[in-house]
Each structure stands twice: as C-alpha cells, then as structure tokens.
C-alpha cells in the first residue's frame, strides 16, 4: 500500500496539480506511515 501511495504521489506531482484531496486512513500500523507521508506531502 505504501509503495503504491508513493508512486501515486510522484505521478500527481508530475501532473502539476493545484490541489489534491486525500482522507487519512486509520492511524494504526502502516496507517501511521501513510498518514505521515500525506502530511509531509502537504507542505
């Protein structure tokens, strides 16, 4: 799941989008890493 997320974020970055909306996943286990990556990508 995490590698697909990173791949998707890179793809979205290449599209030069103005906005990308994403909902957090449950903040346990792998979800913590995914949510952390989404937070860091938002800055």
- Strand content is under 5%
Q: What value does the Rg take, in angstroms?
A: 10 Å
The helix/strand order is: HH
Amino- and carboxy-terminal Cα gap = 22 Å
Write a structural description.
This protein has 43 residues and is mainly α. The chain has one domain (2-41). The chain is built from 2 helices and no strands. It has helices at 2-14, 30-41. Helix 1 (2-14) runs parallel beside helix 2. It is globular and about 30 Å long. The N and C termini lie far apart (22 Å).
Q: What's the short version?
A:
This protein has helices at about 1-15, 30-40.
List keywords for this structure.
43 residues, mainly alpha, 0% strand
Question: Secondary structure elements and their pairing?
Answer:
Blueprint: H1 2-14, H2 30-41
Helix pairs in contact: 1-2
């Amino acid at each position: 799941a995490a590698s697909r997320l990173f791949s998707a974020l890179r793809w979205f970055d290449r599209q030069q989008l103005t906005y990308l909306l994403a909902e957090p996943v449950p903040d346990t286990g792998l979800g913590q890493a995914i949510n952390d990556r989404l937070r860091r990508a938002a800055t």
